[in-house]
From TrEMBL:
<dbReference type="InterPro" id="IPR023703">
    <property type="entry name" value="MltF"/>
</dbReference>
<feature type="region of interest" description="LT domain">
    <location>
        <begin position="272"/>
        <end position="489"/>
    </location>
</feature>
<dbReference type="GO" id="GO:0009253">
    <property type="term" value="P:peptidoglycan catabolic process"/>
</dbReference>
<dbReference type="Pfam" id="PF01464">
    <property type="entry name" value="SLT"/>
</dbReference>
<protein>
    <recommendedName>
        <fullName>Membrane-bound lytic murein transglycosylase F</fullName>
        <ecNumber>4.2.2.n1</ecNumber>
    </recommendedName>
</protein>
<comment type="function">
    <text>Murein-degrading enzyme that degrades murein glycan strands and insoluble, high-molecular weight murein sacculi, with the concomitant formation of a 1,6-anhydromuramoyl product. Lytic transglycosylases (LTs) play an integral role in the metabolism of the peptidoglycan (PG) sacculus. Their lytic action creates space within the PG sacculus to allow for its expansion as well as for the insertion of various structures such as secretion systems and flagella.</text>
</comment>
<feature type="active site">
    <location>
        <position position="318"/>
    </location>
</feature>
<feature type="domain" description="Solute-binding protein family 3/N-terminal">
    <location>
        <begin position="45"/>
        <end position="271"/>
    </location>
</feature>
<dbReference type="GO" id="GO:0009279">
    <property type="term" value="C:cell outer membrane"/>
</dbReference>
<comment type="similarity">
    <text>In the N-terminal section; belongs to the bacterial solute-binding protein 3 family.</text>
</comment>
<keyword id="KW-0998">Cell outer membrane</keyword>
<keyword id="KW-0732">Signal</keyword>
<dbReference type="InterPro" id="IPR008258">
    <property type="entry name" value="Transglycosylase_SLT_dom_1"/>
</dbReference>
<dbReference type="GO" id="GO:0071555">
    <property type="term" value="P:cell wall organization"/>
</dbReference>
<dbReference type="GO" id="GO:0016998">
    <property type="term" value="P:cell wall macromolecule catabolic process"/>
</dbReference>
<keyword id="KW-0961">Cell wall biogenesis/degradation</keyword>
<keyword id="KW-0456">Lyase</keyword>
Length: 489
């Protein structure tokens, strides 16, 4: 009996020890610090370092952030089930420092090329794009055909950029090659400097050149470096690669269903400029498309005390009078309203021509009401149209910048000179709303003014023809009456 009890006690002690061991293991598991990914998901925020600019992020006309890098990072944040916080920086050097310490940002999304030097500081995701590095020159100055033709010429790149790394490597072999790196210019600024002849050459990414072609047409490609350059997100070097692994899974799925290709087309696509071919198409559409919408445009314009021909010109600029039009940016309908604007105006169907025209006109009228009283006459309309296109905040930035440059903030001609400066880093870095494709509202207003002039001319011709036809009919009637009178006599 005593032996049986002793055996039972021994088994009980063993079981207790095992239970204690399992409990200790469970406690160890529970006390494991959360991974980087788990911490972000618990906090509900993904903090991403980036640089305000055309290839990365900027404000759209509704005041919302957009841009290739922003859109891709936002999609990743959605994938993780968290919100996105953009942490603005001034250059790639600052980004590398922030990512390396990992205190204020979780990653960087800034169109960064993977280089050996950068890999010493940070860890990179799988590449999501492959781009080229381009040497840009000014058309008419002679395209360089050999390296020696660059010696003694002015070449510029962005500071802390991969392009600066490349030129540093080349100049180590060829000391005659002179170049400089600017902390004040982004890629678009450098391309503009080539376009106007301030510098001889610039080395930039192909993505920047794609955006610039319709804006700075004198800037041409002198040479394309043959090696494709991978763009990737940057992460802190750490044994914990949970966030980076999640990013790679996301990028794989995002590429697989063509969402990445669509995003690239959206942000690096350029709308064709108004030209002779466009003018011919416009005159044809006055005859074939405008009659269908003329009554709607006239009635809506009358309700808001607008010139109906101006409203017709605006709607043509927006959609070419195609009620089912859709821009590469996602705006839709005759007046190409964004989803945000449509929601703000209470518009349920952007493809409904009546809702679209009425909503677009009401929105433009609201902008005109918001403008400062000092803006008078046609200047008020042109500035309202510019705000309709680029956003009210960016227009206000341009007015503040105009004052700084000694220009008249109430003059459209002066504002048209200033707006393109919002695409230059040395100017937009000190504005409230940051980078904007400032040349676009200028082209937008100029196109509408041209369309309005052509429409007015066509209507005058039409009225003259009607008047001539009426005169001919009256003359014929008078002749008939006179003949009848003679016959009766």
């Amino acid at each position: 009996m005593r032996s049986t009890l002793s055996h039972f006690a021994q088994q009980l002690i063993k079981a207790t020890c095992l239970i204690g061991l399992f409990a200790a293991c469970a406690l160890l598991v529970d006390s494991r610090p959360p991974t980087k990914l788990e911490q972000i998901q618990a906090d509900g925020v993904l903090r991403v370092a980036s640089i305000n600019g055309p290839e990365t992020y900027y404000e759209d006309p509704d005041g919302n952030l957009t841009g290739f890098e922003y859109s891709l990072a936002a999609a990743f944040a959605d994938y993780l089930g968290v919100s996105l916080e953009i942490v603005p920086t001034h250059n790639f050097g600052e980004i590398l420092d922030l990512v390396k310490t990992g205190k204020t940002v979780d990653m960087a999304a800034a169109g960064m090329i993977v280089t050996k030097r950068r890999q010493q500081s940070v860890s990179f995701s799988d590449p999501y794009l492959e781009i080229s590095q381009l040497l840009i020159y000014r058309n008419g100055t002679g395209r360089p055909t050999e390296l020696e033709s660059l010696f003694g010429r002015k070449i510029m790149v962005m500071e802390d950029s991969s392009e600066a790394e490349r030129l540093s490597q080349i100049s180590a072999q060829y000391p005659q090659l002179e170049w400089s790196a600017s902390a004040d210019y982004n890629s678009m600024d450098l391309i503009e400097q080539v376009h106007v002849g301030e510098i001889d050459f610039a080395l930039v990414k192909s993505t920047a050149y794609a955006i610039s072609q319709s804006v700075y047409p004198r800037a041409r490609i002198a040479y394309t470096f043959p090696e494709k350059q991978p763009l990737a997100w940057a992460f802190q070097q750490s044994n914990d690669e949970s966030l980076k692994a999640a990013a790679n899974r996301f990028l794989t799925s995002y590429k697989a269903d063509n969402r990445l290709a669509n995003l690239e087309a959206t942000h690096f696509h350029q709308e064709p400029a108004f030209n002779a071919g466009g003018a011919l198409a416009f005159t044809n559409r006055i005859r074939t498309r405008l009659p269908k919408w003329e009554t709607l445009l006239k009635e809506t314009a009358a309700n808001y005390e607008f010139d109906w021909l101006m409203l017709a010109a605006i709607s043509y600029q927006e959609s070419h009078w195609n009620p089912r039009a859709r821009s590469y940016t996602g705006v839709r309908g005759l007046m190409m309203l964004t989803r945000t604007t449509a929601h703000e105006l209470g518009i349920e169907n952007r493809l409904d021509p009546v809702q679209s025209v009425e909503g677009g006109t009401r929105y433009l009228s609201k902008i005109m009401t918001r403008l400062p009283k000092g803006i008078q006459g046609q200047d008020r309309l042109w500035m309202a149209l510019a705000a309709y296109n680029v956003g009210f905040g960016h227009l206000m930035d341009a007015r503040r910048l105009a004052r700084k440059h000694g220009k008249n903030p109430n003059s459209w001609d002066d504002i048209a000179e200033i707006l393109p400066l919002l695409a230059q880093r040395k100017h937009y870095k000190n504005t409230r709303h940051g980078y904007a494709r400032g040349w676009e509202p200028v082209n937008y207003v100029n196109n509408i003014r041209q369309f309005h002039t052509i429409l007015a001319w066509h209507k005058q011709v039409e009225q003259r023809r009607l008047a001539m036809a009426e005169t001919t009919i009256l003359s014929a009637n008078e002749h008939t009456t006179e003949s009848d009178l003679r016959s009766s006599l």
